[in-house]
Amino acid sequence: MGQSREAGRVVMLGRLVSVTGAATAIAGVAAWMTVRVQLAAERIVVPSSAPWFAGQEVRGPHTAFAQAEAIRRTAVEATGGRTYGEMAADDPMAAMAMNASLLRSSLFTSVLAFGTAGAQVGIGAVLVAVGAGLARAGRLLQEANS
Q1: SS3 for 85?
Q2: Does the predicted model carry a pTM greater than 0.85?
Q3: 18-46 as b/e, with b when 16 or more CB fall inside 10 Å?
Q4: How many CB atoms are closer than 10 A to CB 68?
């Protein structure tokens, strides 16, 4: 009787882990889609000067990264290679360099959000697989104890 009860607990644990994994994966997909929709709403198009994805709308991590690189290149060219941190406050290019820096930071935040959401989906999938394995092991134990 005790072994059958323990096997039942393993089955329940497996189901709990699987449900947790599914919820985790769904939350990751929701986060990915939220960032994607918000970026798309800005209607940003990667400029032709970008090294990759020129002419494409910014909707994902790769296009966001390409846009950030295009902004960096433009800002470096306009400031003679200086970053915002290297400029005096009264430098006429400081405001442009600051805006470029802020835009790049925002784009990199979206890249990070995509990465985190993708990892969350992956972790959720692993939890579903582990939970299914636990539930199967528990059922096999129940059958062996019958």
Answers
A1: helix
A2: yes
A3: beebeebbeebeebbeebbeebeeeebeb
A4: 22
